[in-house]
Design a protein that fits this description.
The complex is a heterodimer of chains A (288) and B (337). By secondary structure, chain A is α/β, with parallel strands linked by helices. Chain A is 39% helix and 25% strand. Chain A has ten helices and ten strands. In chain A, the strands form two sheets. Chain A has a six-stranded mixed sheet with strand order 6-7-8-3-9-10, with helices on both faces. A four-stranded antiparallel sheet of chain A has the order 2-1-4-5. In chain A, β4 and β5 form a beta hairpin. In chain A, α3 packs parallel to α5 and α4 packs across α5. The longest helix of chain A has 20 residues. The termini of chain A are far apart. In chain B, strands 6-7-8-3-9-10-12-11 form an eight-stranded mixed sheet, sandwiched between helices. A four-stranded antiparallel sheet of chain B has the order 2-1-4-5. With 337 residues, chain B is an alpha/beta fold. Chain B is globular. The chains are: A alpha/beta (288), B alpha/beta (337). Chains A and B meet through α6, α7, α9 and α10 of A and α7, α8, α9 and α10 of B.
Chain lengths: 288, 337
């Protein structure tokens, strides 16, 4: 199935409100927080959109709303031309084959009581794919693809390091041959040398399987390395969007400029120049 | 004479599997008013080094098995707990990564600042309060007098780290140890806190040890940088020198594995990942601890069997490797063995 405009995912005017309850004995909704406030973007097959912002900017909530893990308050999410927000539970479940997620924390996102093989094979079991034997073969294949030794598939997650666990999480996301993977801070919990291994893996998988990514991260350098297009979020809104080069080399929005000037770069000489830039911007931001 | 001289420090943790050699022969000095950055990945021993200096490690299981920590003319490893308490907070202060958990949630901010003053100085309640307001103003917390009566949950992450810094500064310490002080903060807040630390270090003529995993943060503040790997310092040089001419294959790999924000190489293919993991510190190899992951270590090289020592490859630039970058350039046949 492909849409007329060739887009895999099209999000328009997405909103998500969370009720805030207060009161001691009788709780009532006193007001609502607009975590996502009119967000729109699109992703073509095989491409990566980087969603970058600071904590509380609504980037993860946006990702969850795209996957219908959270029900958006309003707005439209078109996946291959099909409106997801109107679908019932069974249809959403069918679509989950095509849309998967990799979480930030490889420690809490894997069930400690399940073996690696069962974790990676669970999506296949849930969706009744193939025979038991087929599924076992598929699990070995998937672990091999993500660079995890398949002979360890009978072991438990706690026996592995953070980087290895994230490979398990990626293998699980790949199990049903999805077209889109939402990567929610996939390397934030990892050391930099391990982080590079996982980022390289994600790039290889994209090339080999034609995956599209919605890549969510607070780390501007990581987002730049991964993304074709970038959207910068603040307070539930996209303040700037464009190709990675446009946004990073010619940022138009003052918040994007301040954000970029705040990132430490490993060069003391550049750092001193950047500090001067940053102080000017910080001044401009508080004034304006 | 340096303010702090750590000499051949070895700190171990006793476990059922054996002694974990978390810090294994670390030496460095910090001069008055100087900033030393200690950089490395999780488990390299950077925090244990800091906690050893502060005498804050639980004993047992931790034990400083050898080495000395000379601070301002005294060996801290030889002091009694009571004598250490007079040094801690008064002369050496420390701030931690997580400002959410290092403040007491049940005490007002004011109380948490004045209790340090109370421990080390003989001040009246009024004087304590005045000093506390001064400190909050110094770390640029708006409406300082009102905020003394607030509890920690009323402050944002960045503001809490400022409160921690205010507490650390309360007694005008000669040395501040900051362990990943900005890791839990957003980038814009991180930049503000680093700027603040830099300003305060200058105005208080205070020495700073900044511990971080982030090469960018080190580049921003450090005069000198020590790179740690598997319990040892593997490279040590001035900030500019280290980033301009990294020598150790590990330092090079760490810098190469960082995605770049600006410059020519952005989005140019793959990042340089370091294969494998650091060695187990219960029974570390007798060889170079990085040899198993080193792209330059040949099977016949002596670094596979003998641990290299830190040596001065250029003036004030120390490296612990048989294959530093500048020697590889002179002997290109050694590469890709």
């Amino acid at each position: 199935m492909s849409t007329e405009n060739g887009l895999l995912l099209e999000v328009t005017d997405l909103r998500k409100e969370f009720p805030v309850r207060s009161g001691f004995f009788i709780e009532r909704v006193s007001h609502t927080v607009n975590a996502v406030d009119g967000v729109g973007f699109s992703i073509a097959p095989g491409r990566t959109l980087g969603l970058v912002g600071e904590s509380g900017s609504g980037k993860s909530t946006t990702g969850y709303c795209v996957l219908q893990l959270l029900k958006p308050t309003s707005g439209s999410v078109l996946f291959e031309g099909e409106e997801l927000t109107k679908l019932g539970r069974d249809d959403v479940r069918r679509l989950r084959r095509d849309m998967q997620i990799v979480f930030q924390d490889p420690y809490s996102s894997l069930n400690p009581r399940m073996t690696v093989g069962d974790i990676v094979g669970e999506p296949l079991t849930v969706h009744n794919v193939g025979s038991r034997r087929d599924r076992q073969a598929r699990v070995r294949e998937l672990l091999d693809v993500v660079g995890f030794n398949p002979s360890f598939s009978n072991r438990y997650p706690h026996e592995f390091s953070g980087g290895q666990r994230q490979r398990i999480g990626v293998a699980r996301a790949l199990a049903l041959n999805p077209k889109l993977i939402v990567c929610d801070e996939p390397v934030s919990a990892l050391d930099v040398s391990i982080q590079a291994q996982i980022l390289n893996l994600l790039k290889d998988l994209q090339r080999d399987f034609g995956l599209a990514y919605l890549f969510i991260s607070h780390d501007l350098s990581v987002v730049r390395a991964m993304s074709d297009d970038i959207a910068v979020m603040k307070d539930g809104k996209i303040v700037e969007a464009g190709t990675a080069d446009e946004v990073y080399e010619h940022p138009k929005d003052s918040y994007t400029q301040a954000l970029l000037a705040s990132v430490p770069v490993p060069d003391p000489r550049r750092m001193r120049e950047r500090r001067t830039e940053r102080r000017k911007l910080a001044h401009a931001l508080t004034e304006g | 004479m340096p303010l702090l001289a750590v000499e051949d420090l070895r700190t171990q943790f006793r476990t059922r599997e054996g002694a974990v050699r978390a810090v294994d022969g670390v030496s460095f000095t910090v001069d008055k008013g100087e900033t030393l950055g200690i950089v490395g990945e999780s488990g390299c021993g950077k925090s244990v080094t800091a906690l050893s200096i502060m005498g804050l490690l639980p004993k047992p299981p931790a034990e400083i098995v050898s080495g000395s920590i000379e601070f301002d003319g005294r060996d801290l490893t030889k002091l009694s707990e009571g004598q250490l308490e007079d040094v801690r907070g008064r002369e050496i202060a420390m701030i931690f990564q997580d400002p959410m958990t290092s403040l007491n949630p049940t005490l007002k901010i004011g109380t948490q600042i004045t209790e340090v003053l109370d421990r080390h100085f003989d001040l009246s309640k009024d004087e304590q309060r005045r000093r506390a307001i001064e400190l909050l103003e110094e770390v640029r917390i708006p409406r300082a007098p009102e905020r003394l009566a607030d509890y920690p949950h009323r402050f944002s992450g960045g503001m809490r780290q400022r409160v921690m810094i205010a507490i650390a500064l309360a007694c005008n310490p000669k040395l501040l140890i900051a362990d990943e002080p900005t890791t839990a903060l957003d980038v814009t807040v991180q930049a503000q806190v680093l700027d603040l630390l830099e300003d305060l270090r200058e105005s208080h003529e205070m020495a700073l040890i900044l511990i971080t995993h982030d090469m960018g943060v080190v580049a921003e503040v450090a005069d000198k940088v020590a790179v740690m790997y598997a319990g040892q310092i593997v490279e040590h040089a001035s900030g500019q020198e280290l980033f301009d001419h990294p020598e150790h294959p590990y330092t090079e790999a760490l810098l190469g594995s960082l995605p770049e924000l600006e410059g020519e190489n952005v989005r140019e293919g793959r990042l340089v990942a370091i294969p494998g993991r650091p060695p187990d510190l219960i029974d570390p190899p007798a060889a170079c601890r990085f040899a198993a992951r080193c792209p330059y270590a040949g099977a016949q090289d002596t670094c596979q069997s003998v641990e290299p020592q830190l040596r001065e490859i250029r003036a004030e630039h120390w490296v612990r490797s048989e294959h530093p970058a500048s020697e590889r350039a002179r002997a290109p046949e050694a590469v890709r063995s």
